[in-house]
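worker-03 picked up job from queue 'complexes'. Input manifest follows; three sequence lines, order preserved.
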Amino acid sequence: MTAAATTLQHAAPPVSGPRALIQRLRHGDEIAHLLTLTFAAAILLLTSMLVWELWVNSHLSRAKFGWNFFWTQTWDPIFDTFGAAPFIYGTLITSIVALSLAVPLGLASAIFLSELAPRKISDTVSFLIDLLAAVPSVIYGLLGIFIVVPLMRTWLGPALIATLGKLPVIGKLFAGPNYGVGFFTAGIVLAIMVVPFIISVSREVLLTVPREQREAALALGATRWEATWQVVVPWARSGIMGSVFLALARALGETMAVTMVIGNDPKISASLLHPGYTIAAVIANEFTEATGDLYLSALIELGLVLFLMTFILNGLARVLIVATERGGGRPA
Amino acid sequence: MKKSLLVVSILFALALTVAARPGTILLNAAGATFPYPIYSKWFDVYHQKNPDVQINYQSIGSGGGIRQLQAGTVDFGASDGPMSDEQLKDSKFKILHFPTVLGAVIPIYNIPGVSGELNFTQKALAGIYLGTITKWNDPEIANANSGVKLPGSDIVVVHRADGSGTTYIFTDFLSSASEAWKGKVGKGTSPQWPVGLGGKGNEGVAGLVKQTDGSIGYVELIYAVQNNISYGKVQNASGKFVKADLAGVTAAAAAKAKEIPDDFRVSIVNAPGAAAYPISSFTWLLVPAQISDGAKRDAIKGFLKWMLTDGQGYNEGLSYAKLPKPVVDKELKAISQIQ
Amino acid sequence: MNRALLLWRKTLNIVMLTLTGVAALSVVSVLFLILGYLIWHGGTSLSWSFFTQLPKPVGETGGGMANAIVGSLKLLLLAAVMGLPVGLMAGVYLAEFGGKTFSFVVRYTTDLLNGVPSIVIGIFAYSLVVLPVKHFSTLAGGFALGIMVIPITVRSTEEFLRSIPNTLREGAMALGASKWKTIATVVLPAASGGILTGMLLALARVAGETAPLLFTAFSNRYWSPGWGQPIASLPVMIYTYAIAPYDDWHRQAWAAGLVLLGLVLLANLGCRLVLNRGGAVRSV
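worker-03 finished. Artifact:
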C-alpha cells in the first residue's frame, strides 16, 4: 500500500518554494546529486582559497613590480629586485622537453602493454610501474645526480652537440658548454618521473575500449596497427589526454628532483644544455630561508605566476583537443 | 575475511592516536643547517640526562628559523647569521642571541693535474666569484702558488642554490674582502650570483665539484673533514695563508672576543691575527626574552647552561670549534635575561 | 588491390608494432633499473634497527626511522580520509550528474590544482591550519597531502565511470533502479578497478612528497603522540639525510626510500585484496 501512497503523493502538484525542495530531497537521486555537487563545489572553494592566499600574500611584490615582474630577468634577494622571466622560461622548457620525451614513449608503451603483451605480463609490468609513482622525488633527484648528469656530461651532451648541434636552426638548442646539469637533463629526469602516469592511465583506458570496435576495424581489412592507431586510440583519446594533463601538471610543479639536476642558474639561454631554473625549484630552494617581507612576497608571486601558466597551458591544451575532434572519439 | 581486516585496520588506526605521557616537556625548534650535527648530538645527550625534556630540532634553514620563531610555531630558533637591526626592530617580541659553536667555510676545487693545496688570496676568491677572473692560470691565482702548474682552462664556479647560512658566511667574507663584491652582490643567504652553477646543499656543491673538471666551490669545514675532501688555504687579514682547522677558527673568535657586543651579534670574518682563519663564524640560538610557560622556560635555560659548559666538550669531536672562554662567561650571565 | 599499398601497410604495421615494443622495453628497463638500484642500495642498508629505533644523532650508528615509518602511515591515513571521498564524489558528479558549464569549470580547476607545486600547497596549508593555532601538527600535514590526492582521484574516477557503457546503466534502470542506486550498485563496482588504480596512484604520489610536509607536519626527532604534534615522515627524513654529509645517513636514506616503496606496495596489495579487484569491465 505504501507504493500506492507514494505514487499518489508524487501525483499531487508540487508546492512552490522550500516545501518543494524538501519534497524533492526525499528522492535519493536528488540527495545524491546534491551531495556530489557539494564535493565538486568544495574543490572550487579550496582552489579559490588557495589563489586568494597567494594573491593576498604576494601583494607587496605585485605593488612594487607590477607587470614588469613577468619580464625582469634579475632575481636579487639582497638588493630586493625580483623578476620571473628566467623561471617562466625554465619551467616551460623543461616541461616541453619532458613531455616530448614522455608522451610518445609512454603512449607507445601503453599501446604495447594493452594490445600486444600477454595479459599476465601486462598486469605485472603495469603494477610495477604504478609503484614507481611512489618513489619520492628526492630519490629521482639522487638518481639524476648519480646517473643522468654524468651520462649527459660525458656521452649524451657531446653526442647531441656533434649531431643535432650542427644543424642550421635547431643547432642553437644544442650548443656548449656542457656541464651535465641543465634544461635537457632536468627534462629527462622529469620525463622518467611522469611516464608512469601516462602509461598507467593510458593502458587502463585502452583496455576499456569495446572489443567490437577493434574487431570491426579488423573485419574491414585493417592491419593490427591501423586498427590500433586509427580506431582504438582515438576512442580512448580523452582518457589519454587526461593522462597527459596529469603528466604536464606534475612536470610543471616538480621541485626536488629538478633542483638537483638543473644547475639552478636563473638565466635564459637558447641552449638546452645550459643550466637553468624553474619556478618550483626556486620556491623550494629559497622559501625556507627567505626573511624580509618583499622577498617572501616575490616568491609567493612566483607561485601565482605558475598558477597562471598552468591555467593558460591547460586552456591551450583543451582548445587543441576540441580542434582535433574529428569524430573518432567515444560518444560523450 | 573482509570484515575482520576492516576491524583490524580500525584498531590499528586507533592505536596510532595514543596520547603523550604527562610531564614531558616538548620543545620545538628550527633553523640553521650549519650546526645541525652538533645540535642533534646535544639535544640527544641532554634528553638522556633529562628524560622529561624532548627538544625537537629541524634544520629548515636560518631564515626559516627566524620566521617560525616570529610566527610562534617554534619555541626557539637557530641562525647562522645574526638577525639584522631591521629584523629585530620588526620583531613582535624581544629576541636574545646565544652563540653556540664556531664553524668555518672552505674553498674546494677539482683541477685535473693539480693535487696539492692551493693558496687563494682574498682578491682571487672575490674575482672568481664575481666572474672577473675566469682562468685558472690567472696571475692573481698563479702568483700565490709559485710551485704549481695551473692549466689555462676555464674556472667553473659552483655555489649554493638553496638559501643558506654557509652562503651568508662566505658572502660576508667576500664583502669584507672586496668592495666590488660588496657593492654589486652583497652578503646574504641567497645572493644574486654573477656566475656559476647552483648545487643543493653542501652535498650538491661537493658533488658538482667532484664531477666537474676545473671547478671551485665552498662548503662547511665539517663536511670536507667528514668526506675527506681536499681544500685550499685562504689568505687572512694579516696576509698569511691559513688552512682551516679548529685552532684557526677559535683564534679568529678569540681575536674579536674582546669587542663582542652585549647582544652577541658580531661577524668574525677576516679577523685580525696571524693564526686566524678568515672565513669563520659563530652560529646562534635565538631565544625569546619572555617565555610565559614556566616549564619550557626552565627547560631552555637549563639546556643553555648545559650547552655552554658540558656541551662544549662535544664540539671538537664533530669538527666544530669551542667558544672562547670570555664569550662563554658572558653568555652564562646573559641567560638570566630570559624571564 | 594495389600490391604496393598493401605491402606498405603491412610493413608499416610490423614497423610500428615493433617500435611500440621497443618503446615499452626501453621505458620498462629504465624503470626497472631505478627499482633495482633502489632495492640494491636500500636493501643493503636495511636492518632490524631501522624499523625499531628512533633516529640517532650524527656519528652514532644504529639509528633507525621507526617514528618516520609510523608517521608516514598516519599521514597517508589522514590524506586518504580527507582527500579520497572528495575526489570520488566529485568524480561521480562530473561523470553522472554534471551540467555542461559547471563540469567544465570543475574539471579545469581540478587540473589547475594538480599543477600547483607541492610546496605552494604546503604554504597554503601552513597559513590555514598551522598559523592560527601556532604549532605544526600531523593534521596539517594530512590536510596538505589530502588536497594533493584530490585531482588524480577526480580525473581517474570520472574517466573510468565514463568508460562504463551506457547499456549497463540503462539495463539497471530498466529493472527499476533509481539513478543513485544504479551508480552505487552497478556503475561504481564495474569501474572499481580503474578507480582504485587512480586512488592508489594518488596515494602513492603523495606518499613520496616532501615539500608540503616541511611546513605542516614539520618533523619530529621523537614519537609523535596523537594528531596535534609535529611528526616525522619518510620523505622528509630521506630529504634531510640525503643532502647531509654522512655516509651512514645516505645509506639510511636509500633504505627509507625502499621502505616507502614497500609500504605503498603493501597498501596496493591490501586494498586489492579487500575490495576483490577484478570487477573492471573489460572488453578484451
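worker-03 released lock.
The mean pLDDT of chain B is 87.
The two ends of chain B are 60 Å apart (CA to CA).
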